[in-house]
Amino acid sequence: MDPAVWEADRADAHGRLTDLRNLLGQAVREAALASVTDTDRRVVDQLLDADYDL
Question: Is the pTM of this model over 0.85?
Answer without folding.
Answer: no
